[in-house]
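User: Hello, can you help with two protein structures?

Assistant: Certainly.
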Amino acid sequence: MKFRYQRWMLRASLLYLLVGITLGLLMYLGQGMAGLGWTYRLYTTHVHLILVGAVMQVIMAVALWMFPRRKEPPYWTPESQGLTLFGIFNLGVVLRSLAEPWSLVSPSLYWIGVLGVSLEILGFFYFAYLILQRIRAPGSSRRS
């Protein structure tokens, strides 16, 4: 099914945006409630979920959907490659988001966070590889 992975990426980005905003609310409430003092640890995760999980993933999904087609078959990014990108990038976002708030407490969680960041970077480079195949001058019959 064409464009399935783009829809999954957009849905995941909306989920990350919802979770990120909810964490922001929790952090704000934590400033005035005694039992929520620990929420200061969620700041980086809050920002990360919104900027990387939501915004970056929307950019990738829309770019893979709207950039010009390839000149050679397959004209679109194959679904297997799109799903690979989705899996690598989202596994990285989830691992980092779960591990980062508590990484100073537990060395094993620190390394899980490092794995998450590494997967995000790998996912970004894979996205760059996929999208560079589609960047060309307007009206160009060959890739430069």
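That covers the first. Now for the second protein you mentioned:
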Amino acid sequence: MSIESKTIQYLLDNDISVATAESCTGGLLASRFTSKSGISRIYQTGLITYSNEAKVKYLKVSTSNLKRHGAVSRQICSQMCLNLHKISKCQLTFSTTGIAGPGGGSRSKPVGLVYIGIYFQKNIYVEQLKFNSKLSRAQIQKGTVKQCFQMASDIIHGL
């Protein structure tokens, strides 16, 4: 059984409510949840907040933080999952933001830079990933989703 299947089964078995806020993964994380039969018991909502405007409007991300740190940052990722928890009241929330490529990167924020945020039990965990910039957009997105489930499993089971 994959880490994804084990994590989803654990969430189902323990009635842990889930919501997702995605940018660079564009709904792929939500899709992995919703492909599981019976997930409607715990999966509440998924937002794709691709633009900065959507992050502000739907997730109440601070415009000053966006200007100061940029959308692809630890600060914005953290704010995304915390505010999603406040809005959804879900016990476990995920956020993803990054540069999946092939374009859009810079020297300070290259293609392959991704942040994953998880809110669980009043704590926020943010992990920075640095994928090889030669990977395809799909590979970076899939790798991010895989790491979301690994990170959630580690957090749920006490790191």
